Amino acid sequence: MVDAGDAETEAATTDDAETDADEERTDGGERSQTHTIRLELVDKPGELLSALHPIAENGGNLLSIFHERGNLTPRGHIPVEVDVECPPERFETIVDALRAEGVNVIQAGAERYGEELTLLLVGDIVDTDLSDTLQRIESSTDAALADLSLSAPEGRGGASSARLRLATRTGRSDEVFEHVRQVADEKDLNVVEPLVEVAE
């Protein structure tokens, strides 16, 4: 037999548990989730700390940081992988805040970049400023540079080629390709149609 005092205690405990569960949920009824963000940082003091500010300021809970100092990205920067816990609706805000601070986001979450597009640029790539070409592609599209391979057998001033592997949002590959073609046309570069990786 349960007396009234025990029943009240059990009801209060149940209410507290429901309140705790509600506190873990977002306004839309979803719980906080873990997201992975891959960044590309310049190797100089304070860069990592600056990149973490937008995460904290926009409600992200930092879980871990993997600083790959021994490896470099195709542009000679340091890749950093950050695990963040936050409600799903805050994640895009965090990513947008990082970009607004000038942080290059290579990949954000599992769904943000669900496809890859491989292209070949041919022409006077070096003298037309490859860094500017890559920056314009990334800043104006939903794409991030995942890999770059440059071949310049004749050296500076000669014909060269660059193989770009771009991570893109699912369903946006055609749009990204058209933008790459526009940038290439302005710089008198040729673009080889998207390359398909063939398994051996």
From TrEMBL:
InterPro entries: ACT-like_dom_sf, ACT_ThrD-II-like. Residues 26-35 have a biased composition (Basic and acidic residues). Residues 1-25 have a biased composition (Acidic residues). Residues 1-35 are annotated as: Disordered. This is Amino acid-binding protein.
